[in-house]
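Predict both folds.
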Amino acid sequence: MGEQKIIMAISGSTRKNSNNFKILKFISENISSDFTVEIFEDLERIPHFNPDLDTENPPEEVQAFRNKIETASGVIICTPEYVFSLPGSLKNALEWCVSTTVFSNKKVGLITASASGEKGHEQLELIMKTIEAKFNEETQLLIQGIRGKLDLDGNITDEKTLLNLLKFIRNFEKQMKEFN
């Protein structure tokens, strides 16, 4: 058996213990033991994107973020939708990756968990295609009405959502094992 693959998980919400964080926690607890999920919780520490600072020596927080992506075998992003778009902090972090190849051919899973989420999910797909991340229909999930599908402890109370998340996890694992 080979060594465990690291999956970097990014919550698009900066709220502590958000529903998106709870979903990532669920994934980390239900993914195959071949993988270790490391949830990135420093999104708010990444400075505002500034092309003048996007040089050989970007800000330390940006370099650390890029390094985590680069060294991870795969990335899962779980985000809410804010005003029909991505949260600014997530979009900001992704903007710091545009001038790099850290996401090029990186296997990613994309989850939007929000009240509606359709527009935010479309934008997430477009950004991730632009930075050449690898994903497909089976490694994406839109969870609408998320507030009514989790209890306060983060347990998934909606059976369809539970089944869809488990299916997402299996599909992501399958993608991670292909072409390695």
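Second protein follows, with its predicted structure tokens after the sequence.
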Amino acid sequence: MAWICLFAAGILEIVWAFSMKKSAGFTLLIPTTITIATMIVSFGLLSVAMRTLPLGTAYTIWTGIGAVGAFVVGITVLGEAITPARIVAALLIISGIITMKLASAH
């Protein structure tokens, strides 16, 4: 159950990062509301996952999902640049997430 909560928290981190970008510095009501609501739920799910998962594992995977997800959303939805260096960076984050998961005793 902790891994499911952690994955959901990571997905919500992607949502709040995207909606924060769309909020124009918290000047638009709907994206700002989505940002705040998904932040709260994401943090709540992360805290549930941390009841049983080690801090380093949970936090690293949560931020990794958010970082790579935001990278993908930035490219696919916002038209941000895709460069070899950015792809390598994302692959390194993914390899770190996988290694953390494999290294976890849970």
